[in-house]
C-alpha cells in the first residue's frame, strides 16, 4: 500500500510542484466566493458569468504587484468585454453566421492587443471562448445586466486577491517588486499574420459547426484557436494533440457527473471545485488540466442552458476534433513571415524560468522562517 502511495506521489510531482499551489488557490478563491453565494441563493444559472470573470486570476503568474495588476486589469477588460458582447448578440438573436463573423473579428482585433501587452496565458483564447459561449446562452438569461455585473465583480475580486497576495510577498521579502522583463510575444507583420490565423481558423471551424448545427459552432471555434497560441509550429501541433487528448479525458470525467442529472447545487459546487486542479496543472501539463476544465465548462453550460447530457458529450468530442484539425491546418498553411519564432519561444522560457524562480525563493524562505520559528 505504501509503495502504491509513493508511486502516485511521484507521478503527481512530475506534473506539479509546490509552487503551483498558490496560484491555483488564488484563482480558486476568486471563484469560490461569488460561486458559493450564487449556489446558496439558488442562482446557479449565473455561475457561467462568474466563471468567465474568475479567469482574470489566471493571468500574472508570479509577477510583481504592479505588473500583475496591469496585466490582470487588461485581462479583465478583455473578458468582461467579451461577455458583454456575447450578451448583446445573444439578446439580439443575432443570426449564427453573423455571430461567427463577429467572433472572428473580435479575435483578429484582440490578438495583436494581447501580444503587445504580453499577457500570459498567451493570446485571446479565454476572451474568444467567453464571447462565443455567452452568445449561445444569453437569450435564456432573464437578467442580462445582473449577469454582466457578476462577471465584472468577480474579475475585480480576482484582481484584488492577486494584488494583495503579490504585495504581501514583497513586504515579507519573499518576492521582488521588480517586474519580469520580456518582449511582447510578436511584433509588426508577425502579429498581423497571427491575427489572420485566428480569424481564418474561427471562420472555417465556425462555418463547419453551423453546417452541423448551431450548437456546434462555439466549441468548434474554441478548439480551433487553441493550437494557435503557441510560438512555434511544433508547439502548435503539440498543443492541438493535448487539446484532443485532454478533452476526451475530461469527457470521461464529465459523463458520470452529468448523466445522473444531479441537482443544480451539486453541479455548482463541482464547478467551483474543478477550477483548482484546472489551474494547478495548466502551466505544467495542458492535457491533464483539460481533464478538469472540460467537465467544468460542460457543467456550467448545462446550468445556463440545460440540454441532453449524452448529446452534449458527443457533440463536444466531435467539435473538438473538428476545431483542432482546422486550427492545426491553418497554423501550417499560414507560415510565420520572419524566422524569429524561436526567439519568442526562448523569451517565453525566460519568463517562466524567472517566474518560477521567484516562487521557489518564496517557498524556500517560508520554509526557513518556519524552521526558525520552530
TrEMBL record:
Pfam families, A to Z: FUSC_2
Transmembrane region(s): 21-40, 69-90, 96-114, 121-138, 144-163, 195-211, 240-259, 265-281
This protein's UniProt keywords: Membrane, Transmembrane, Transmembrane helix
Domain spans labelled Integral membrane bound transporter: 206-328
Subcellular location, principal: membrane
Annotated protein name in UniProt: Fusaric acid resistance family protein
Compartments, as annotated in UniProt: Membrane
Keyword Transmembrane helix: yes
Domain of life: Bacteria
Organism: Nocardia caishijiensis
Membrane topology: Multi-pass membrane protein
